[in-house]
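pls ignore typos typing on phone
S-adenosylmethionine + seq
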Amino acid sequence: MPPQWQEQQRYHAAMERRGIRSFVQRAGRITEGQRRALAELWPRYGIEAGEEPIDLETAFGRRAPVTLEIGFGDGESTVALAGQHPEGNLLGIEVHPPGVGHCLLLAERAALTNLRVISQDAIEVLARRLPDACLDEVLLYFPDPWPKKRHHKRRIVQPEFVALLARKLAPGGVFRLATDWAPYAEHMLEVMSASADFENLSPSGDWVERPSSRPITRFERRGGRLGHVVRDLAFRRR
Ligand SMILES: C[S@@+](CC[C@H](N)C(=O)[O-])C[C@H]1O[C@@H](n2cnc3c(N)ncnc32)[C@H](O)[C@@H]1O
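k done
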């Protein structure tokens, strides 16, 4: 087993023992439409949770550049992006079942064929199920900010996570982040800037302009109502 992989395995085993995850499994209310979508549309769009390696070409039925969106919420941006880029494959990961159901409903309405969805901890999917250098772009929009100091360890952006992404992104691939929580934006910048594997695409060495391609999501609107400033970051895999 390559040493890098052993290191990741140890890291994940330790994380699991300590029960540190970037999300809390919420029960959440699920609508009838979302329930139907999970039952009826899952076979079309879903990739089962588990340990099996994922062959992306088989999963999408074609070879095309792959964008991964981590924690897509209710899938608004995911579905919009997949619709805007029929030439690419979009892989979405989300653990909240009502959000997954909502995303599937939107995907059906848009008649998408280039979207696949996984409902499993993104860290597990990256560490154990996806081959190295298989991703062209990774999106992390409005991840849970975990504002309390004692919860900072739950933030998904950590040096180990960045090292894992560096392995899964193809050279030249881009990692895009956005947050409306200023201290998390600073944390993202610090962790990303410390990685020798990534180059900041910001001309000023910090934030980038809001990409016009990034659809506005519910979380972004909520942040706007609260008067939060949204920060976008973009880093290229060296
Ligand atoms: C604050 S919401 C933002 C949702 C969406 N990106 C948006 O902008 O509307 C963060 C989402 O990430 C999901 N999430 C957090 N950690 C995750 C993980 N490790 N794997 C998969 N999903 C995760 C949560 O369930 C939640 O829906």
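Residues 22-23, 70-73, 93-96, 99, 121-123, 141-144, 156, 217-219 surround S-adenosylmethionine (CB under 6 Å). Confidence is low (pLDDT under 50) at residues 1-9. more later
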